[in-house]
Amino acid sequence: MAELFYDADADLSIIQGRKVAVIGYGSQGHAHALSLRDSGVDVRVGLHEGSKSKAKAEEQGLRVVTPAEAAAEADVIMILVPDPIQGKVYEESIKDNLKDGDALFFGHGFNIRFGFIKPPAGVDVCMVAPKGPGHLVRRQYEEGRGVPCIVAVEQDATDKAFALALSYAKGIGGTRAGVIKTTFTEETETDLFGEQAVLCGGASALVKAGFETLVEAGYQPEIAYFECLHELKLIVDLMYEGGLEKMRWSISETAEWGDYVTGPRIITDNTKAEMKKVLGEIQDGTFANNWMKEYEAGLPEYNKYKKADEDHLLETTGKELRKLMSWVDEEA
Ligand code: NDP
Ligand code: MG
Ligand code: MG
Question: Could you say which residues bind NADP(+) here (predicted)?
Answer without folding.
Answer: 25-28, 51, 53, 134
